[in-house]
Design a protein that fits this description.
alpha/beta; three-stranded mixed sheet; globular
Length: about 260
């Protein structure tokens, strides 16, 4: 069985200053966010994942959303160039972490921009959101990096959310799920399954039938449980105030160890 490792990064004390695309959903409690982040890590570890902490970046408000800094396929890591310029200093620590783990490291170069939260992996298909954070040059560089390794890269428009994975993720069987009002083109995804809550559109695959999900999406969890999956709920309320989702607080690295 392949090892399951996940990169995580402790929230910055400046978390409340991070980049958002819509008005903040209430005052943010950083101490409570740290508690939720710790519980998130505990949930991963309880289901067989080893969490590896990236060096903290307290000067970067959004550093906890580590998924946006890198895309990993096979044994290759593509270091992102975030569309929000203020987030670009976040990538250095992640680059060091994946290099230590033995990944072959590549980079997105100017004028390309690419956020890891815009890349949804379904088997060997990489759906990449082309929108506010990832531009056409970034999509081309993603293709150039991963198509030689056997990936199929499919660009999809993103206009209603800031990242593709804010609208859709995928179940272990490859079914793409999403909150339909935020999905620009659901027909691009074979077997698209709508869920009833915005935060229910994100699942993190823990292994087997288990799905890590936000506690703010009980109806979506019930729907997926009725379909035979096993939701594991975590409270991410403070991160949701900053448009954070269950997927963006870690980088899962099964690819490096299969």
């Amino acid at each position: 069985m392949p090892s399951k490792k996940a990169l995580v990064r402790r929230p910055s004390p400046r978390l409340a200053e991070g980049v958002v695309t819509r008005p903040a959903r209430g005052a943010l409690d950083v101490a409570r966010a740290v508690e939720q982040w710790e519980a998130y890590g505990e949930a991963l570890r309880a289901h067989g994942w080893q969490t590896l902490e990236v060096e903290p970046a307290d000067h970067c408000p959004d550093a906890a959303f580590v998924e946006d800094t890198v895309v990993v396929f096979r044994n290759v890591a593509l270091i992102a160039r975030p569309g929000a310029e203020s987030r670009r200093p976040e990538t250095a620590g992640v680059e060091e972490a994946v290099a230590r783990l033995g990944a072959s490291v590549n980079w997105v170069w100017e004028p390309g921009t690419l956020d890891g939260g815009d890349v949804l992996k379904v088997g060997d298909t990489l759906y990449v959101g082309r929108g506010g954070r990832t531009n056409a040059a970034g999509v081309r560089q993603l293709r150039a990096t991963f198509e030689p390794l056997g990936a199929r890269v499919v660009a999809v428009p993103v206009a209603r959310v800031h990242h593709l994975k804010s609208a859709v993720t995928a179940l272990p069987d490859g079914t793409v799920i999403g909150y339909e009002p935020l999905v620009d083109t659901p027909g691009l995804f074979p077997g698209f399954l709508p869920v009833p809550e915005e935060s229910g559109a994100q699942v993190l695959l823990l292994g087997g039938d288990r799905l890590l999900m936000a506690a703010s999406a009980p109806r979506s969890a019930d729907l997926l449980a009725d379909l035979g999956w096993e939701p594991v709920l975590v409270d991410l309320g403070e991160f949701e105030k900053r448009e954070g989702r269950v997927t963006c607080l870690s980088v899962r690295l099964r690819e490096l160890y299969g």
